[in-house]
Predict the structure.
Amino acid sequence: MFTKHNFVLSAAVLVGLFAGTASADVVGKVGVDWIGNDIIVDAVADPEVKGVTCHVTYFERSVIDRVKNGNWFEDPSNSAISCHQTGPIEIGDIEMSSGGDEVFKSGISLIWKKLVVNRIYDKQNDTLIYLAHSRQVTDGSAKMAISTVSLYGQNVTWANGKPQ
């Protein structure tokens, strides 16, 4: 017999299996209430810019919250980001267009919603911009956060030469 408890357990397992894995290291997990909701802190090393690490935070809903409020298969779009120089900066092959490169992506819903970090190079101000936002098939969210890493006055190594 398939009980409500079995349904809850099955849904939780599905969320865990299909939520996607982040190419990041979880460095913090802070409980925010008694029902098990958490704020997760990930450290994300930029794969094309050695010496820059971003810390991204996002909200992770508990099974109890999912049962209580419905909306089983997704977490909120809220996130925050802070990026800093954590070593000598070596810039590889990065995208120079205004859309930049996708540095990090993690599922925050069963299928459609992703937490994404894009890197954009601001050539005029010699600055790397990191934009955290959610991506959805429809109903995109206006919730976003940015962090910048100034390259001005830094001893930066460019694999393909500094853009002029």
